[in-house]
Specification:
By secondary structure, this protein is an alpha+beta fold. The protein is built from 5 helices and 11 strands, in the order H-H-E-E-E-E-E-E-E-E-E-H-H-E-E-H.
Length: 164
């Protein structure tokens, strides 16, 4: 019994609270309005880590290096709508502070910063896609006499025929 307690105490002292309770990855749900948008998730290094359609739950790595949180960009796109970009950034987890209470100096300085477990993402992110305008406000119709056009302009001219 004493050996089990000693082993458990040693394990706790040599690990980080956030690593034990959070882990190195986190599931994040990505939603869009309207649903069914194509999504592409890239990390801070520009590497695509996931693609699919909304809604989706994606497992993201918390850390990007020693004492460095990973951050992600989510691009949502759907035909007829303007693209939407979302950012997912890690914040310090409360479990990391737990190392102070439980005396986990190794957890504070080594384990949690190295694994990225000291960071936490929001459980879900969502974006509303704006409908694109279908009218072409910048298009103009100009009526001119063909006699006033240059040869180059005549090559680009289009004949319009009225419906009868």
């Amino acid at each position: 019994m004493r050996n089990t307690f000693t082993a458990a105490a040693a394990l706790l002292a040599l690990s980080g609270c956030a690593t034990i309770f959070n882990g190195q990855t986190q599931a994040v749900t990505i939603k869009s309005e309207p649903e069914g948008a194509t999504l592409a998730v890239t990390n801070a290094a520009g590497e695509k880590v996931h693609s699919g359609t909304t809604p989706a739950t994606v497992t993201l790595k918390r850390g990007a290096g020693y004492f460095k949180s990973e951050s992600y960009t989510v691009l949502l796109s759907k035909p007829g709508f303007a693209d939407k970009e979302l950012t997912i950034t890690g914040t310090m987890s409360g479990w990391y502070i737990g190392n102070i209470l439980f005396g986990g100096l190794i957890g504070i300085l080594a384990v949690d910063p190295a694994t990225g477990a000291m960071y936490s993402f929001p459980d879900s992110v969502s974006g509303t896609l704006d409908a694109q305008k279908t009218s072409r406000a910048n298009d103009q119709l100009t009526i001119v006499s063909t006699e006033s056009l240059t040869a180059q302009q005549m090559k680009q001219a289009r004949l319009l025929v009225a419906a009868q």
